[in-house]
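Table S2 (text version). Query chain:
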Amino acid sequence: MLLNINNKINITLCGMMGSGKSSIGRILANKLNYNFIDVDKIIEKEAKKTIKKIFQEDGEVYFRNLEEKITIKTLENKEAVVSLGGGAIVNKNIRNFVEMNSYNIYLKVDVDTLTKRLENSRARPLIYKKDLKTELINLIDKRKKFYQKADLIIQNEKNIIETTENIIKKIVN
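Corresponding structure-token output:
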């Protein structure tokens, strides 16, 4: 299978929490015979606690520094589909590293769909105990200029299998 990803060594998935980065990433990696790496899971493993706990106990600045270190190290892998944290792309160092060696795919999901997907989430510190839709709109507004610079933008409102097939059609010669 010949990939049309501009000689990049990895594929990264960026987008908001709830956009399907982990679910689609697993399927895409499997279909391409790539490794799948979820940066948030690596952060939790290294920190020996959940991201929610990291935010509560150590704060967002500590989390973002850890995220930068782990994401950049992760992007040194080859032939991996990497699920980035929702806010990782805002970090200039991460963004530069993604642009250098990864074919970046933005999984775009409208705010109403995200709200439905995340309404029962207790594990996401940026939205927990807040007005969900308002918070999502604010986060999207802060991040969209970075998301929009992705190599490929794919809508993911429907079925993750369809979305994955759509990605494959766009990146396979």
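Notes on Table S2: The longest helix spans residues 132-147. Strands lie at 10-14, 35-38, 80-83, 102-108, 152-155.
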